[in-house]
Write a structure and sequence with these properties.
single chain, alpha/beta, five-stranded mixed β-sheet
Length: 235
C-alpha cells in the first residue's frame, strides 16, 4: 500500500511550494484539497496553486468547510473526507491531501490527520512555508533575534490581555484578525507599537502596509495577519 501524503502548499504564491511537495503531487493519483462554503458558494484558496502547476489533470476531490465557528458541520466534513481517502488508498491509489500554509499551523489537515492515525493508515507529512514567515520577508523584518520570544495569537478579543503579552514576549503574530480588527486598531493607535500588516500574501491581491490610516480604510479579509513588535521607546 502507498503512503498517504499530507502536503503543505505555502501561503499562496505557487512558487513557494517546495520541490518535494511538487514531486509528491505530480506522483499522486488523487489530490484532496480544502475549500470554504458560504451561503451555498464554494471556493478554494489552494485550487489556483494546483492549477498553476498543471495538477488539475489529476483526480481532484474538494472538501468544503462551512464558514462558521460551529464545529459539528466541520467534523462531519472531515469524517466524510477520511472515508473517501481510505477508500482511494485501499484501491491502491497514491493519495495526497493538501492545505494552505503549513500543515501544523491552524491547518484543517490536522483534523484529518487525527482520523488517519486512528485508522492506523500510513501517513507522511511535507511541511510548507507559513504566512507570517512570508509576511516578515515582504516587510523585510526579523520576527525574532537573539533571545527574543514570539507569541502566535489567534482571534484575541481581550485588548487588555493583548497589552500584557508584551510583558513576556517581544514579538506578537496576530492571526485571524478580521473579527476583532476595530479593537486591535484602537490599541495600535494608543500604544504606538511597530506593526506590519499583511493580507492575501503570495496572491495577486497581496497588500502589505505599516500605515494605520491606510489599513483602516480597507475591508479586512480572512487571510490577513499582523506582526507587532514592541517599541521600547514608548513602553
Amino acid at each position: 500500500m502507498h503512503t498517504i501524503y499530507g502536503v503543505a502548499l505555502g501561503p499562496g504564491d505557487p512558487e513557494l511550494v517546495t520541490l518535494k511537495a511538487l514531486r509528491i503531487l505530480k506522483e499522486a493519483d488523487v489530490i484532496f484539497y480544502p475549500g470554504s462554503s458560504f451561503k451555498g458558494k464554494q471556493k478554494s484558496f489552494v485550487y489556483p496553486i494546483l492549477e498553476h502547476h498543471g495538477l488539475t489533470t489529476k483526480q481532484l476531490e474538494g472538501f468544503f468547510l462551512e464558514m462558521t465557528l460551529d464545529r459539528i458541520s466541520a467534523e462531519k466534513t472531515y469524517d466524510e473526507t477520511v472515508v473517501k481517502i481510505e477508500s482511494a488508498h485501499k484501491e491502491g491509489k497514491k493519495v495526497a491531501i493538501v492545505c494552505e500554509g503549513d500543515l501544523s499551523l491552524y491547518a484543517s489537515f490536522s483534523y484529518i490527520l487525527q482520523r488517519l492515525q486512528t485508522q492506523k493508515l500510513p501517513v507522511s507529512l511535507i511541511p510548507g512555508i507559513n504566512a507570517f514567515s512570508l509576511g516578515a520577508a515582504k516587510h523585510q523584518i526579523p520576527i525574532c533575534l537573539l533571545n527574543d520570544k514570539v507569541a502566535i495569537i489567534p482571534r484575541e478579543s481581550d485588548m487588555e490581555k493583548m497589552a500584557t503579552y508584551f510583558q513576556n514576549f517581544d514579538t506578537l503574530v496576530l492571526m485571524k484578525i478580521r473579527s476583532n480588527w476595530e479593537a486591535i486598531r484602537q490599541l495600535l493607535e494608543e500604544k504606538k507599537w511597530n506593526f506590519y500588516y499583511c493580507e492575501r500574501l503570495g496572491t495577486a491581491e497581496e497588500f502589505i502596509s505599516t500605515n494605520l490610516k491606510e489599513i483602516s480604510e480597507r475591508t479586512i479579509p480572512y487571510f490577513s495577519l499582523l506582526i507587532i513588535k514592541k517599541n521600547h521607546t514608548h513602553d
